[in-house]
Amino acid sequence: MLSFIARRLLSGVITIWFIATATFFAMHAVPGDPLTQEKAMSPAVRAQLEARYGLDKPLFEQYRLFMSNMLHGDFGISFTQENRRVNDIISKHFPISATLGIAAVLIALVGGVAAGSVAAYCRNRWPDRLVMVAVIAAISVPGFVIAGLAQLVIVAMNNAAGKTLLPVAGWGSVSQIWVPALVLGLGTMAYLSRIMRASMLEVLSADYNIAAKAKGVHGWRLFWHHQLRNAVLPVVTELGPTIAAITTGGFVVELIFAIPGLGRYFVQAVQQLDYTVIMGTTVFYGAFLVLVVVLVDISYGLIDPRIRLHRGRA
Amino acid sequence: MAISVFRFAPKTWGAADDLEAVAPIPLPSMANPTVILSGLMVIFLLLFVTVGPSLWRQSPSQQWLSQISEGASRARSVRIVSDNGAWRPSKKADAPSGLKVHAANTEYVRLQWPKLAGIERYRVYRGDANKPGLGLAISETADSYYQDRLQLSSEVYRYTIADADTGLLLLSREVRPEAAMSVFEAQLQGLIPVTNNKTQWVEIPGHPLGTDALGRDILARLMAGGRTSLFVGVVAPLLFITFGCIFGAIAGLMGGWVDQLAMRFVDFVVALPFLLFMILFRVAFGIGPGENGIMPLIVAMLVLSWPGSARLIRGQVLALRSQPFVEASRIAGVSTSRIILRHMLPNVLPMILVAFSFAIPQAIFTEAFLSFIGMGVSPPTTSWGALCNEGIKTLLSHPRQLILPAIFISLSVLAFNILGDALRDATDRRSGVVRA
């Protein structure tokens, strides 16, 4: 177990190093630099700024500096946001994105498992049909459209009620989390319920399920101990990629619902070629995703005792 | 690999279901109503974007200034009015006894009312005649006349004049502006000659789906946008799956350290943050003035999306390589190229087709997503995603402008997904067990 985790973490570190290196050189290969703005700059000012940010050094020297700073946990100062430290940007705005993401994953997980189980239990009857139609709709409609429509519905609802039942956008109160989180989690929920349905169908026709029934296990105990625990595994397998999808999809939802999460700074930084912010957010997200995947791998062992983690390959 | 710790760890790394996939594949029985319907849908969408523009000849970039964000309209004739900017009633005209309408068309509504003693400033309200209430306070004036040029359309308005200081309502009247177009715009659109200002009426084309926030025909834009979306959606997967297959096949056939090296490389490409690198590549390849940004988009997708199919094909090739029939052919002296073409290709082709059909909706989604955040195609080229991007800005007042392109994205994604599902079911030997 420990050696498995150690190996996964090691490969994770190599992956992060690769992401950081690739991003660094791809970013510097893009024509222009963060000091290229609409306003023309006198050569003297430019030289001074370049010296301040270390852009006057050779590329490999910059790379070496960046790497050594990164190992010390320092991502430097933003180019475009007036002396703001990248670490501060991340520590201030990531918790917001994370809260939204966790809420979305929870909604997707609970909703997907519930809908998938119901569909499998009622195979080919109307609840199944209903779930499958909803799943197809949720998979086919892009997230930004769902976000827009959700706002439209909220506005119509508020107008009909004559007061603000739910805020349309913004961040800060609990009531402002649920709609964006639902929108963000909807596509994933649909995807998970599809997987859950297929795997639950498999479990329902499995010998051990029939044996458990024959033994007299019934009701919640049968569902909870014999069916759900077996059927939920493929869903857990998908959780890693799912969390990645939700963090990516989060950018648009944050944009539409005016949520001050990290995604906005990330997109903005790429557009303005803000080197330090790009590197900081990319490495941070990369590390986050690697960690999530490792955690998901470990969680298999907790759910399914048959899995021997040391057999897994890094 | 996350998959390899899963319950049924395959013997060969990455080569899932080796035996089953190699067995002869039954001919697809895809004739069920849903599949036929989605096939028809795909054909409709393709015709819509290819033949469509030659049937519906409006230009997707032509702006009708007089028809900003209008609803569906038919071809009709409109009056041409000369637009002189500021207006005041002529001195000779007597002060009207009530609220007098000098002119009412969609370019301007001109109102005049009697000067009332003791009132210094008037406030003009404009509201929808079918709804209660005064509507919008559109102006405050010390004069006893007003010209309304604030985005008028051919519906019934109620104008109300009130005392600005006390709020006392003075006069009210319902007005229905006549469809009109300014001389300037008619000349701009080439509907009337520049020198001839005598034309009174002019025929203008209708917009079956209305116009967008810049007065452009939505139907024509949907056709033009669909062209981009479907082009990217089909060409990008075609390229990256071809590349991925070649890469994976070489890795699988060579084996040994080449294979190991190739697969480590694949692992790293998979680890790259997709969105960031899409945007970086798109910026790096550069979009010069006058370019549409489609090529950078496709290249970026090619660079980032090929590993999936490379893994798939490598696994298949590895599994096939050790199959008795392949070994038998090799012993019989069949050339390597013939083994690949005659024995391996037919076995992996269905998988490639399935991967391709699932890659199409994903590529359409990716393009839509990037265009939506403004990192996709660049104007005047448009796509369904770019149309959604424009549409969401006017969401609350004109939801149609978002919903229409969204419907097209959803329909195409849905149709391709269903086709992919059917294709997978038809080629997947296990499908009899669980899949409903």
Automatic annotation (TrEMBL), chain A:
Keywords for this protein: Cell membrane, Membrane, Transmembrane, Transmembrane helix, Transport
Transmembrane regions: 9-30, 94-118, 130-156, 168-192, 243-263, 283-303
InterPro entries documented for this protein: BPD_transp_1_N (IPR045621), MetI-like (IPR000515)
Subcellular location, record wording: Cell membrane
Pfam family, one: BPD_transp_1
CDD domains for this protein: TM_PBP2
Keyword Transmembrane helix: yes
Record-annotated ABC transmembrane type-1 domain positions: 94-300
Membrane topology qualifier: Multi-pass membrane protein
UniProt record similarity statement: Belongs to the binding-protein-dependent transport system permease family. OppBC subfamily.
PANTHER family named among the record's database cross-references: DIPEPTIDE TRANSPORT SYSTEM PERMEASE PROTEIN DPPB-RELATED
Name of this protein: ABC transporter permease
